[in-house]
Amino acid sequence: MNKSTALTVCFLLLMAMAISCANPPPVRIGSEGAYPPFGYLNEVGELEGFEIDLGNELCQRASLECQWVTNDWESMITNLRAGRYDTIMAGMSITEERDELIDFTQPYFPPEQSLFAALAGADEGVTRGRVAVQTATIQADYLEGRVAELMDYGLAEETIEAVLNGQADSTFASHSYLKDIVSDSQGRLEFVGSPVLLDSGVGIGVREEDKELRKKLDEAIGSMKEDGSLNALIIRWFGEGEPTF
Question: Rounded to two decimals, what is the model's pTM?
Answer without folding.
Answer: 0.89
